[in-house]
Amino acid sequence: MATTEEAPTRRRYPWPIEFYRSAVGKKWVMALTGIALLGFVVAHMIGNLKVYFGPEDFNHYGEALRDLGGDLVPRTSLLWALRIGLLGAALLHVHAAYSLTYTNWKARGGRYRQRDYVAVTYASRSMRFTGTVVLFFIVFHLADLTWGTAPVAPDEFFRGDVYANLVASFERLPVAILYIVANLALGVHIYHGTWSLFQSLGYSHPRFNRWRKGLAAGLTAAIVLVNLSFPIAVQVGILEI
Amino acid sequence: MDVTLRVWRQDGPNRPGAFEEYFAPGISSHASFLEMLDIVNDRLTLDNREPIAFEHDCREGICGACGMMINGQAHGPQQGTATCQLHMRKFRDGAVIIIEPWRAAGFPVLKDLVVDRSAFDRIVEAGGYITVDTGSAPDANLVPIAQEAAEASMDAAVCIGCGACVAACPNSAAQLFTAAKLAHLNLLPQGQAERYIRAEAMVDTMESFFGSCTNHAECEEACPKNISIDFIALLNRDYIKAKWRNGRLAAQR
Ligand code: FES
Known about the structure:
The complex is a heterodimer of chains A (241) and B (253). By secondary structure, chain A is mainly alpha-helical. Chain A has helices spanning 15-21, 23-48, 55-66, 77-107, 122-125, 127-147, 162-170, 173-200, 209-235.
């Protein structure tokens, strides 16, 4: 019979799993998937600027997305690869956020009677809220302009005519307001996210920390302004069918 | 000056607590915050009432014992100092001062304003050591250390383990404390042998007691030693390397 007992060693998983099990690892994943999602938001925004060139250009842009990769790959395959990657990033981002939120609520020891915050910003405190708003908005947005699901999508929805779909959707005032509110939430989320992801990735230095705030503010301003311009342009009649 | 205190009173661990109000007239504005509490406690004792329990030791900002939440700020309104270095002249005559213990699941209240900070000891035990040869004392300056490394390490080593970072964090995370203890050794040549074992062990231990950092930077403001959250970035860097390396080393056994 064994007299010495080995200290029970926990089974070690492959390192990405080991790493993701920790809270620090989840923050890394949030930062990396955040970069991927942010990249999508920026590309989506730039592509959408085509709407100002008129229906032909814009619809052509929509078609071109399906033709990504040209003749080298089967049609729409690259688009689907991007979509799947993006969906994976979004799922990881949400799962990590959910799991960290649970950890943090468990770690709290009751509320202070009085608490004067000094450093936190509205953006940093509201990440869970703005993130949830954006999540629900994305589902709405897909139903509205990608899938054309009634009753979210406009009655006139016609698959492939992206310009007309967009204009028909934004002509509905409540929908235009919803887009504006959701994009403001997205902006607040991106502001803290852009600043914060450098810290999570261990990339912080007094020499460029000021530059980080500037980058976060600039990116937020650009994304919010351009994205808000679409529903507003439709509402005031700059974009019409 | 006269002040009114609203103090959290709690008989013992896991007991219900409540705020009690004490009027403290005739306090010298030169008194330190802890001296003010001493005076209030003397008066309570003369009245045959239970004095307010609070922790203190050095009273010069180096031991980290005296942490408490004063008017919603860790160590009170003065930046870069511990409670014992705060003076009553920082308050208005007639001020109402709310005093609470640190609140975090990892810091259970023992009595009144005293919390159990031994979770910090667990974190230090997990990796806050280095390997040295025993025997006769080595010559001084045997290990050359770059001035910058020494300075950076000292910037982290000023941590007094008071717990203000946890108390101030909306997530009750102990990232700043752990990062400081980690950086203190990881930046020096003497700390390299255990660098990645340390990073993994200390962070994993930390996560078993505390929440997770979401980069609010509130800890940096609360820290009586002004330790920078840049050290947390170092922690994040060393931790991913540690998981990668330690996993690989485990596979070689
Ligand atoms: S009593 Fe030692 S730091 Fe305040």
